[in-house]
Write a structure and sequence with these properties.
Elements (H helix, E strand, L loop, with lengths): L10 H4 L7 H13 L3 E4 L7 E4 L4 E3 L1
Antiparallel strand pairs: 1-2, 2-3
Length: about 60
């Protein structure tokens, strides 16, 4: 099985996710995406994102 990652989960982005609490937010967003939810980062520091299932949404 080949996994195709969305552009905002690319290696270039991941390397900036380490430090300052960003990794845990990144991991949460990645797991939400893996479960089929829509994930949108709302800042360039990968600290804030929204998750939606199409009916409900949550801002982290």
């Amino acid at each position: 099985m080949t996994v195709v990652w969305p552009a905002h989960f690319s290696a270039d982005v991941v390397k900036h996710a380490f430090g300052g609490g960003r990794l845990s937010a990144y991991c949460l967003a990645l797991e939400a995406w893996r479960r089929g939810l829509s994930v949108t980062f709302t800042d360039g520091d990968l600290r804030r994102f929204s998750v939606s299932d199409g009916k409900k949404s949550s801002l982290r």
